[in-house]
Amino acid sequence: MFDQPDEDYVREESKKITPTDIEKVVNRSEELDKQFGAHGPLRRFISDSKMLMSLIKDYRSGAYRNVLYGTVAAAAFSLIYVFNPFDIVPDVLPVIGVVDDASVIAACLLLIEQDLFKYRDWKMNRPSTEIIDADPDAS
């Protein structure tokens, strides 16, 4: 089998993320939306992926800089990992090919959890800003 990616893996790999990689994530946001969409293989992480993408976009635009670059890099790395079809377990393998993607997203969320809480609070307190609901099915 394979070792599941964990927080240490995300931490180490995120050190390799460059501003160009962050730009790549923003440019491929529609592709990522399909992966995380209602019918995508990572639908459990819909709101989380929106939060990660929003953090990256706000950081890139300069709207939100109250975060370490390492946090943004971890978010970018995890999203790049999702759209890379040749990661630890190739995505072409049914079911198991998406398990490692989900593991990387989950590890990233655990790694940057406190920063995401701060970012969400900042986002919620901004006027005229879309608030990302933690549970998209809640009404």
Explain the overall architecture:
With 139 residues, the protein is mainly alpha-helical. It has one domain (7-124). 60% of the residues lie in helices and 0% in strands. The chain has helices spanning 7-14, 19-27, 29-36, 46-61, 69-83, 96-111, 113-124. α2 (19-27) packs across α4 (46-61). It starts with 6 loop residues before the first helix and ends in a 15-residue tail after the last helix. The model is unreliable at 134-139 (pLDDT under 50).
Approximate helicity band: 55-70%
Categorize the overall geometry.
globular
Query: Roughly what fraction of the amino acids lie in strands?
Result: under 5%
Rg measurement, Å: 14 Å
Q: How many helix segments?
A: 7
| Whole-number tally of structural domains | 1
Mean pLDDT, all residues: 82
* Stretches with pLDDT under 50, minimum 5 residues: 134-139
Main sheet attributes: strand count, strand direction, barrel closure: none
Order of helices and strands: HHHHHHH
End-to-end CA span: 40 Å
**Helix-strand makeup class:** mainly alpha
Secondary structure: number of strands: 0
Any chance you could write out the topology, listing elements then pairs?
Layout: H1 7-14, H2 19-27, H3 29-36, H4 46-61, H5 69-83, H6 96-111, H7 113-124
